[in-house]
Design brief:
The protein is mainly beta and about 260 residues long. It is built from 1 helix and 14 strands. The chain is about 5% helix and about 35% strand. The longest helix is centred in the first third of the chain and has 10 residues, at about 35-40.
Length: about 260
Amino acid sequence: ELGRPQVRARDRPVDDAVQEEGGAVVTDVSVMKGALVQNLTSNGGDPTCDFRMRSVTWAATGDHFWYPKLTLHLHSQAEEGGRGNGISTEPTVISLFDSKTFDRHFNDDRLPFIFRTPEKLFSAHVRALITGHGFDNNGCAEFCAGITNHFVVNGQEFMLDFPLAGTQLGCTEQVVNGSEPNEHGTWFFGRNGWCDGQDVRPWTIDISTLLKAPGDVNIIEYAGLYQGDTPDPTSNPGQIILSSYLVLETFSGTR
């Protein structure tokens, strides 16, 4: 689990001693535990892992600094009761597709990801975090309606869109889910995949039953579209921030 309280120093005099704290967000990242395991394996047992947090440049300028805090809570299978029946698994996490400018080249050079089904497969998932940012002539990729994200696994398509994008009060409707109200500016507008102060929920696709027999080849493809077609803004193209992984778990104990 990742815990992420954020404290924003508002534009008030320091001697007012006023700070407003956004909601503490807990995100289950258990499916990504393979990244930790792989670090131990690839670095000769070194228990040190690096975590990086990214933010837009304007969040660290002027009087509107954000001070994010991040903690990682680790639980063993024994603490969680294990999987039961003596079953243990070994996870593997593989990077898939990344962020790009949301213009007519967005889908260029996105080669299909090809991999073989491992022996003793327990489960397989695609996990993605996707948000839109920027403001082109169509209001993309932050505020415009009509952005869709498509993963295709061995011919089976999965689609994610953001129905609140382009709405006047989309993020006000998300206050109960963590959107932070009454900020300056446009906090209340619906956005593609995010609202101010709210955690970005991962899109997890179970593809276990779609994979072919052990040793056979599988194909994963991704494309991002605007109004059903390749985006083609005429000015100031925005960006889709995308982090996506293939998570494979194989049996390592008694089945």
